[in-house]
Amino acid sequence: SQDHRKRRTGWQAPSFVEIAGDKPDLKTIESAELAGRRHLSLRLPATNLARRRRLPLGYHRFQMECRGGAFDSLLIAAPRRAFDVPGKAWGVFLPLYSLVSRESWGAGDFSDLEKLVEWTTAEGGTVVSTLPLMASFFNHPLEISPYMPASRLFWNELYVDPRKAPEYMECPAARTLVHSNFFERDVAALRSLPQVDHRRVMALKRPVLEAMAQWLLKTKSERTTAFLDYVADHPRLSDYARFRAAAERQQAPWPAWPQRLRSGKLKPGDYDPADETYHQYAQWLAEEQLQQLSAKRDGRAGLYLDFPLGVHPYSYDVWRNPERFALQASTGAPPDSLFTKGQNWGFPPPHPGVMRRQGYAYFIASLRHQFRHTRWIRIDHVMGLHRLFWIPEDRPASEGVYVHYPAEELYAILCLESHRTKTVVVGENLGTVPPEVTRAMGERGLKPMYVLQYEAQPDPKKCLRAAPANAVASLNTHDMPPFAAFWEGSDLRDLQEIGLLDRKEAAEQLQKRQSVRKALQEFLPGKPPRRASAEPAGAIMQRCQEWLASSRAKMVLVNLEDLWLETAPQNVPGTNLERPNWQRKARYSLEEFRTMAGVANVLRSIRRLRSPRRANLRAK
């Protein structure tokens, strides 16, 4: 029934808005002739909508009948600007896989994230930021980059904590497995590694989850009913679970499957039903644990999640709807001073024409998947709302071209979804940004990023421009060296070692970096040392953090690893084979760093400088 659909899915019966007058004032924006047919782009002024009824915010179908036939289109009624919050705030950043604790099984999980949220709240922070938490491939292929997900519609089960589910304590097989000698030995080995072995951690965790899933189905409890209801209410989940189960049966990515399977037509014999159940159950637990984490919003730090630009070419998303992607091209970047041959990021760009024809269904679903759990969200490569660099298949990046996207409509969707969930939207706008992107972000209320290591110049008087009042400010990002490496110049030596800089370029960059160091020391408040080398890295790091905290920036984000002067990066762009990206654990565990005096001192200073009382005093 309609009432049942509304209660279970949020669906509502369609409403109709009349157009005032028999001949509405349709204004021609542009026209073109294609294949012998004339195409018009028309604008319907808002004054033509019947005044007796305001068009509610949301997605509507616009239907028009004329001599040439009947036409319909998506109509987006959206706020002009994205959702915003008052005041100034601060938070912390750490990749979740890197956030290890004494209880984790070799990688951070949602329980560790919840503990970090609680600690950040106690320190006065507002958000906890991390890298994308989307689904990953652990076999056929192994792909651990959070920016190359197996789907933008599902979570990474690596982060599920089995012990948090009620059925863990009820399932003898799961508890027997976890307390066995070989399991405890393997967990100890994974905890001792300096890097996260994603595949081994998942291989250890999966049998526990599988045992719990089978136990749940046998018990026929209220939890069983809740699980089965969730699966019934989310048909896409079963489709995804069968895709993952079929991949495990085939032991190959989907382009290597038989034709029928490649075309999206799976039958029960194509996969193991137990594998299907496992993937359904893992996603249910991930959703449940994230919901528990994000539901307690009042007075508690919220999540600041990351929306990746693309999806793996072997992903569920591409397999299920290949027409949504330009499969004969890859997304990337044109040549620049660092990557002289350009960059090929390896994932197919979304097809702008199909996006529009399908009413942006995939884009909306991908956003909603994250928006319902996050208080802030970062849109990776926000320029992609306007244009993407397409590289033809089997051609070098230097032969790519920019393809434009319907930015106005994509911004409208972002603004609408952000208001529906009260989520602040941040655009990753680093690098060479076209003026129209900066202008559109300002008009639509997307927060820009301000990164001190990127902004710093060698002129002491103009070393740093003021952080914009609406910006998210930080010392660095996950794609940059930590502050201590930046300060010491060890990142430049690393780039020379892997061949991204030659000896001459490295020497020039190091000389410039030394000038930047001196300029920073003179520019920042406080008395600079007589010799630039005399100031410890920890002292200048704290001065930089305090300068950001005292700025007008909307949000200050603290990379926790900077607080103990980490020098190893989490990711070095362009080094998929040369460096162990997306694997390094934090040097200190959650239990260790939350008791470190140096960490507490910096955060206490940031809290004081970000406080409303301090801001009011500066305003007076």
Architecture overview:
The protein is 40% helix and 15% strand. With 620 residues, the protein is of the alpha/beta class. It has a domain at 2-77. Strands 17-14-11-6-5-20-19-18 form an 8-stranded parallel sheet. Strands 13-12-15-16 form a 4-stranded antiparallel sheet, with no helix packed on it. The N and C termini lie far apart (60 Å).
Q: What labels describe this entry?
A:
620 residues, 40% helix
| Unreliable segments of 5+ consecutive residues | 1-15
With strands numbered from the N-terminus, the spatial order across the biggest sheet is 17-14-11-6-5-20-19-18
The residue fraction in helices comes out at 40-55%
Mean pLDDT: 91
Distance separating the two termini: 60 Å
Briefly say what this structure is:
With 620 residues, the protein is an alpha/beta fold.
Annotate the secondary structure layout:
Blueprint: H1 2-9, E1 27-34, E2 37-43, E3 58-66, E4 69-77, E5 89-93, H2 110-123, E6 127-129, E7 134-135, E8 137-138, E9 142-143, E10 151-155, H3 166-170, H4 172-178, H5 181-192, H6 198-219, H7 222-233, H8 235-250, H9 259-262, H10 273-295, E11 302-307, H11 316-320, E12 329-333, E13 343-344, H12 352-357, H13 361-371, E14 376-379, E15 387-392, E16 401-404, H14 407-421, E17 424-427, H15 435-444, E18 449-451, H16 452-455, E19 472-474, H17 483-488, H18 490-497, H19 503-523, H20 537-549, E20 555-559, H21 590-593, H22 597-610, H23 612-619
Helix pairs in contact: 2-10, 4-6, 6-10, 8-10, 13-14, 18-19, 20-22
